[in-house]
Design a protein that fits this description.
alpha+beta, Rossmann fold, Tumour Suppressor Smad4, six-stranded antiparallel beta sheet, 33% helix, elongated
């Protein structure tokens, strides 16, 4: 369902996660309140803290916005954005983002600035446009979903961030330490486009963000812009070869490595193991770790998320050059 066009009277219902990124929540709140007051825009802020959850406040924001045809807004990192988007998808409401995370791939791929004041001006001036959503067992992902080594890497990276702070260098070195250890090899049967194939891999990554895929150098980085998702599987390699692959990804040349298999798809079923397959596996969904029942079904959502965004995303266009 497409939302109604936004106007100067469309109120904003903002779910603000005080724990995302390095931004100070009080300062962020002040910027939002002052910007909306200057524009004459009605505003309601739902502050996530130790007494509340993002899920509960996202549901309340959607209900309040539905009553007055408002805009549901996520102010936080990719995990917060995912949770609020999950509550908004299918509601017929416009969705907005004020990025507060470390990497902010979702907002960057859609032309939304990192600066809160600038992102708010986009939210106040632009109209909702359809954005593709990925699904894994009916749980949405906006950036990526994965199992195996990549999920382990994200889980352990969070523990390093708690100890050493949130930065891209902390994330890189946490990843380096993780890949230097031995890891489980998965025997997977993948069905897509009516064809089944067996692969042995340390990780299966499914991307829905062209900017992230371009930056690591994946061949099918344009899949999300063509109504598809991009699957990336890493063939088993020795521990000593893993840092080299991590560096290749950092340099944007991962897709050219012989150890990397990638392909685009609209729907893909993943089964694990021929003997005693696990009932559940850990999956990473937009940076958050969860359990999912096997088999996994990855697919493009039949309905889009209606994101308030510019028509052009400068960083994405620059990455294509």
């Amino acid at each position: 369902m497409q939302p109604s066009p936004l106007g100067p009277s469309s109120p904003l219902f903002v779910v603000l996660n005080a724990g995302s990124g390095n931004a100070d929540a009080a300062e962020t709140r002040e910027i939002i309140e002052q910007g909306c007051a200057a524009a004459g825009r009605r505003l309601r802020i739902f502050l996530v803290d130790e007494r509340t959850t993002v899920q509960a406040l996202a549901r309340e924001a959607v209900e309040r916005a539905r009553a007055v045809d408002g805009v549901v807004v996520a102010a936080g990192g990719d995990g917060t954005i995912n949770t609020v988007a999950r509550a908004t998808l299918g509601s017929g409401l416009a969705f907005g983002v004020l990025p507060q995370g470390t990497f902010n791939y979702f907002s960057r791929a859609h032309g939304i600035p990192r600066d809160t004041a600038q992102a708010l001006q986009v939210l106040l001036a632009e109209q909702p446009r359809p954005v593709q959503v990925g699904l894994v067992n009916d749980r949405i992902f906006l950036v990526n979903a994965s199992m195996g080594l990549y999920a382990e890497l994200l889980e352990e990276r969070e523990s390093y961030k708690v100890r050493y702070g949130r930065s891209r260098w902390v994330a890189f070195f946490a990843g380096l330490l993780t890949v230097m250890r031995g890891h489980r090899h998965w025997n997977l049967r993948i069905a897509s486009h009516g064809v089944e194939r067996d692969i042995r891999t340390t990780t299966l990554f499914v991307g829905n963000n062209p900017l992230q895929l371009l930056q690591v150098g994946i061949e099918h980085a344009d899949a999300p812009e063509n109504g598809q998702l991009a699957a990336v599987a890493l063939k088993p390699v020795g521990v000593l070869a893993m840092p080299g692959l991590l560096v290749r990804g950092a340099l944007g040349r991962l897709g050219s490595a012989d150890e990397v298999l990638s392909f685009p798809f609209e729907s893909m079923t993943v089964k694990a193991g021929r003997l005693h397959p696990p009932r559940r596996v850990k999956v990473a969904i937009d940076g958050e770790i969860a359990w999912a029942e096997m088999p996994l079904l990855f697919r493009v959502s039949p309905e889009p998320l209606w994101l308030v965004r510019p028509d052009v995303a400068p960083e994405l266009e620059a990455a294509k050059q």
